[in-house]
């Protein structure tokens, strides 16, 4: 009879344990669902045409089919999932045109991440093409570690890793190959 009693107690304990585990798992799933917050933009806009000014002078024009603002996250950013077309103007009204398939602007760092068929063209005819390029808005400085192609009146070159000023007056490249005419 002792063996029968032990089997019955074990059977009951197994049933109770299973019920507790099932109940906790069910509650755990409900708690997980309630703690999930959807990652949705705080604002969206289509067919953007923004003009940035400084002291009444246009400094930049940004055109994009779609903009998504994520201001309600710990590291706020703005996404341009369908690409951008930006025209920058210097103090002498010289233009630099920037095209990219995708862009993300990070508010806290003032860095813009340009991705996919990135092309920058200066008014002087200098062209830089790459797959990804970062722009430091505060210092007005571009940089990448990706492969690039640079073309100007002196020729074209290819390389990997480059950084340069917004007006192409200062250019630092890392690994470069190509024929370039020198003033020296």
Automatic annotation (TrEMBL):
GO terms for molecular function: lipopolysaccharide transmembrane transporter activity. Coiled coil: none annotated. InterPro entries: LipoPS_assembly_LptC-rel, LptC. It holds the Pfam family LptC. One of its GO terms (cellular component) is plasma membrane. This is LPS export ABC transporter periplasmic protein LptC. It comes from Flavobacterium nackdongense. The gene is lptC.
